[in-house]
Amino acid sequence: MKYISPLVSPVFGRSGPRSLAILGSTGSIGTSALRVVAKNPDALRVVALAGARNVELLASQAGMFRPRYLAVLTEEGARELRGLLPVGYAPEILVGRDGYAALATLPEADLVLAAQVGAAGLVPALAAARAGKVLCLANKEALVLAGELFRRTCAESGAVILPVDSEHNALFQAFAGHDGRQAVRLILTASGGPFRTWPAEKIRTVTPAQALKHPNWSMGAKISIDSATMMNKGLEIIEAVHLYGADLDEVDVVVHPQSIVHSLVEYADGSQLAHLGVPDMEIPIGYCLGYPERLNIGLERLDLAKVGTLTFEGPDPERFPCLRLAREALAAGSPVVLNAANEVAVQAFLDGRISFPGIARLIEEMLSMHALTCVQDLDDILSLDAQTRTRAAEALGRGEW
Ligand SMILES: NC(=O)c1ccc[n+]([C@@H]2O[C@H](COP(=O)([O-])OP(=O)(O)OC[C@H]3O[C@@H](n4cnc5c(N)ncnc54)[C@H](OP(=O)(O)O)[C@@H]3O)[C@@H](O)[C@H]2O)c1
Fold first, then answer.
1. Cβ of 217 below 6 Å from ligand 1
2. N or C end of the chain: smaller count of CB under 10 Å?
3. Pairing relation of β-strands 261-267 and 183-190?
4. What Rg, from alpha-carbon coordinates, does the chain have?
């Protein structure tokens, strides 16, 4: 494998607690990260928090952690937020994409946790990379959209990406202390989602409420639907290619319904090194925030005797076509189209406008309409993303999905 190492030890300029900016603090990853911070007050300190629409939760987080900076999506949200903060506490409040990007580049922040959902997280995450930050990356869509750009940017700026996504974090841990160039295969585990055992006819009837109920992980709405369609694993294949320099055919997926083995690296001699743990994002988040130290996470320990059985099976490409679509999109150079079409389709499904299989159909149609264009810089990416969203919205209006 022409392995690219993200395992450069980040250099922190000073001793004492690391200061942390969390983009997406009001989401599932953001709230887990704040639990890790609360359990490790000597190691971590919050300097900035950013939410989007959930201003009440952001105000309560801010009251508890007292960061110097906050950011929200709109001016109206900023006004509301100001009114909700405790008397005598007056942080600087920034707004919108520029505000998020400003928090991502704060000189006071040692670490930036990029935990916003979807393509909206790209610009702030890239700003952090351009500023040479240690970027703890949960927002997988950023790498799907702009993997090459991140690679170039990190090489120029000296930024380090620490992968929060549990599978990539597992690979990161399985690479540690080994020569990555001797790796031959990355094996991503997938829970298979709530419909793993459902026949195709029944999958046609899936409702948003059913799709939002993940069997093992508690996550935000978008990634829960991505897990149900297995697009989440497709996005993770692309993420792994960019993070570790693997070729597409060096990344495999195995379905593992218990979500205890979080992924594996296979080496040239046939050894496979895995990372195991209870399915809780505090573990990979803590690993990134404390790296290379291990923080106090304080969760119930994994007891394999209690778990009893770990099972593995191949993914079913017929019932879960999104895996194939993701591979095809990367091979064809159109992951931006894949991601934008997926975001539109997932939202339309959550709004009750399309069926569950309609998600894959809409994405496939958008990919088939896409003529190969050269997507190199941020403007190209944002413009193709916007163009695809418009096309997808038009297609949704045209027919039954
Ligand atoms: N959850 C997991 O277990 C998990 C695991 C691995 C990777 N990830 C990745 O981590 C990212 C976050 O996932 P999540 O499950 O934490 O999502 P989530 O619970 O939906 O939270 C999303 C966060 O993004 C903010 N946000 C929403 N729209 C935004 C916009 N237009 N601009 C800026 N911020 C916006 C939300 O703010 P408001 O709520 O205030 O509106 C919230 O703070 C995703 O990329 C996901 O794929 C998640």
1. yes
2. C
3. antiparallel
4. 20
| Separation of CA 290 and ligand 1 centre (Å) | 21
Tell how far the Cα of 162 is from the centroid of ligand 1, in angstroms.
17
Q: Is 77 in the pocket of ligand 1 (CB under 6 A)?
A: no
Q: Which CATH class is domain 18-164?
A: alpha beta
> Taking the domains of the chain in order of start, what are their residue ranges?
18-164, 178-272+315-396
Nearest residue by C-alpha to atom 45 in ligand 1? 139
Nearest CA, atom 3, ligand 1: 219
Which residues, other chains included, contact 201 with Cβ-Cβ below 8 Å and sequence gap of 6+?
A: none
Q: What is the pLDDT along the chain (401 residues), one digit of tens a residue?
A: 776 665 445 555 557 899 999 999 999 999 999 999 999 999 999 999 999 999 999 999 999 999 999 999 999 999 999 999 999 999 999 999 999 999 999 999 999 999 999 999 999 999 999 999 999 999 999 999 999 999 999 999 999 999 999 999 999 999 998 999 999 999 999 999 999 999 999 999 999 999 999 888 889 999 999 999 999 999 999 999 999 999 999 999 999 999 999 999 999 999 999 999 999 999 999 999 999 999 999 999 999 999 999 999 999 999 999 999 999 999 999 999 999 999 999 999 999 999 999 999 999 999 999 877 778 899 999 999 999 999 999 999 987 88
| CATH topology (fold) of 178-272+315-396 | Rna Polymerase Sigma Factor; Chain: A (1.10.1740)
What is the strand order of the sheet 251-255 is part of? 251-255, 183-190, 261-267, 272-276
CA–centroid distance, 219 to ligand 1, in Å, is 9
**Is the CB of residue 220 below 6 angstroms from any atom belonging to ligand 1?**
yes
Segment (H or E) for 285: helix 282-290
Structure tokens at 271: 């050894």
Do residues 312 and 256 make contact, with C-beta atoms less than 8 angstroms apart?
A: yes
